[in-house]
Amino acid sequence: MGACLSVFGGKPDNEDDQNTNSKLLGDDQKQEDLEDDMGSTKPNSEETVRIQIKGNNEDEQNNQQKVVLSDFEILKVIGEGSFGKVFMVQKKDDGKIYAMKQLRKSNLTKQHQKLKTIEEKNIMVNMKSPFIVQLKYAFQTTTKLYFVMDFMQGGEMFYHIRKAKYFKEDVARFYVSELVLALEYLHSKDTIYRDLKPENILLGADGHIKICDFGLSKQGVKDSDKTKTICGTPEYLAPEILLGQPHGKEVDWYSLGCVLYEFLSGAPPFYSRDKQQMYQQRINSDIQRKPQFQNDAWDLIQLLLAKNPKDRLNTAAQVKSHPFFKTVDWEKLLNKDVRPPFVLKFNNEQDTRYISNEFVKQAVQNTPYTPNVGGLAGGNQDFDGFTYQGGVSINNN
Ligand SMILES: Nc1ncnc2c1ncn2[C@@H]1O[C@H](COP(=O)(O)OP(=O)(O)OP(=O)(O)O)[C@@H](O)[C@H]1O
After folding, report:
1. Nearest to 21, CA basis, from 232, 237, 277
2. Which atom in ligand 1 lies closest to the alpha carbon of residue 150?
3. In what order do the strands lie in the sheet with 72-80?
4. Which helix (H) or strand (E) holds 264?
5. What CATH class does 69-152+348-362 carry?
6. Phi-psi region of 133 (alpha: psi -120 to 50; beta: other; left: phi over 0)
7. Where are the domains of the chain?
8. Which listed residue (17, 195, 213, 252) is catalytic?
9. Binding residue numbers for ATP
10. Does the annotation mark 195 as catalytic?
11. 81 in ligand 1 pocket by Cβ < 6 Å?
């Protein structure tokens, strides 16, 4: 789950729609206590919390094996977010590999955080696009929530862009085109993503991308609707968000412009270690053309990074018809009939060579326990509607 930010002292006007600033949580929070229910091979007290499946088709669901934590073997740490860790896991009965994101309930103390977590789950369940990570199961223990998802073995685009320094135009075009289709799909479902950045763009073993992390997404936003919450990662935030102004789907096209800029040059526009300077420049300065930018790319970047959302390319149709994409066959791309630029090589399905050592080298067992900043408030409360198994969301769980 991502974080909403307060920049320039701006305050979200909608309490229910904000999250806690990840930067405020500190590193301690990331030291998850795995021993209590993750890494240990001993039977675990939390595993006694079996989720009861209740729903429309009770017979079918009663026959179904309830999925619980002990159904998975935890293999490696593969990522870390503001509210918990992400693991590579293997389902014990069929041997399938998944990614499992763990959120500690005590970190989600406010009602709006709980609601956002349920919303994140609903988005992952309902958004069926080849370019969006799919949720397979969601379940909870007394203290934690678990999302079990497609495992994206190619890791973060962040890793690949840092390694390559920057991408050739054809490579950037391929990934950005798939992102256009992901955003087009989300927007067609009246959902704004609000957290497009290389860390949230994952590569599958097939070399195609999927976006993950819908913790900042907002549903029910029609074309003309605006929201005022200040959300996202500073480097990719549209000026209207920085200024605390109402914003709509245009913010995702701005972030796409930042990602294209970074793919072609190696760094996002206006990048500075000094965050205030970065915000000021984003609002007041012109973007700089890098030598790598060919004319069409530069034109598209300028149109996506227009400071005023009204001047921005702000529908998928407008973006797709820009000359930068003239060679793209959108139909083929949607069917994944276009060969990805990088062929990823793996020794086996547990090979994590494209995932940063910063995560993979962490022990999944016996990670030292660090008390949470937020204490145990809310720790034992169930998150109604979170559980998702066998293709259905389970009420009262
Ligand atoms: N399905 C997946 N397959 C492989 N890796 C994944 C998957 N989902 C997440 N990750 C890894 O875990 C990282 C953190 O996941 P995610 O962004 O969902 O967590 P978060 O707590 O919401 O993070 P943030 O604080 O950045 O918003 C991702 O950037 C990615 O590296």
Report:
1. 232
2. 1
3. 72-80, 85-91, 97-104, 144-150, 135-140, 388-389, 392-393
4. helix 250-265
5. alpha beta
6. beta
7. 69-152+348-362, 156-335
8. 195
9. 101
10. yes
11. yes
Q: Is 268 in the pocket of ligand 1 (CB under 6 A)?
A: no
Interface ipTM? 0.96
Backbone torsion region of residue 28, taken as left when φ is above 0, otherwise alpha when ψ lies between -120 and 50, otherwise beta: alpha
Return the best residue to mutate from 199, 214, 349 for the ligand 1 pocket (most ligand atoms within 8 A of CB): 199
Same fold, 69-152+348-362 and 156-335: no
Helix (H, G, I), strand (E, B) or coil at 360: helix
Strands, E assignment, 250-377: none
Distance 199 CA to ligand 1 centre (A): 7
Q: What is the pLDDT along the chain (397 residues), one digit of tens a residue?
A: 554 543 333 333 333 333 322 322 223 333 343 334 433 333 343 443 333 323 334 444 444 568 899 999 999 999 988 778 999 999 999 999 999 999 988 888 777 788 888 888 989 888 999 999 999 999 998 889 999 999 999 999 999 999 999 999 999 999 999 999 999 999 999 999 999 999 999 999 999 999 999 988 888 787 777 766 666 677 898 999 888 888 899 999 999 999 999 999 999 999 988 888 888 898 999 999 999 999 999 999 999 999 999 999 989 999 999 999 999 999 999 999 999 999 899 999 999 999 988 899 988 863 433 333 333 333 445 577 778 876 777 665 6
Which residues fall in the annotated binding site?
Answer: 101
Within 10 A of 159 (CB to CB), how many other CB atoms are there?
18
Distant-in-sequence, close-in-space partners of 127: CB < 8 Å, separation ≥ 6: 185, 186, 189, 191, 214
Residue 1: CB within 6 Å of ligand 1? yes
Minimal CA–CA distance to 90: which of 349, 345, 356? 349
Whether the CB of 199 sits within 6 Å of ligand 1:
yes
Instruction: State whether the beta carbon of 200 lies less than 6 angstroms from ligand 1.
Output: yes
* C-alpha Rg value of the chain to the nearest Å: 21
Q: What is the CATH number of domain 156-335?
A: 1.10.510.10
| DSSP-assigned letter for residue 194 | -
Residue nearest to atom 4 of ligand 1 (CA): 152
Alpha carbon nearest to ligand 1 atom 16, residue: 213
What count of other Cβ atoms lies within 10 Å of the Cβ of residue 92?
Answer: 11
Q: For the chain, what's the residue count?
A: 397
Look at ligand 1, atom 23, and give the residue with the nearest C-alpha. 81
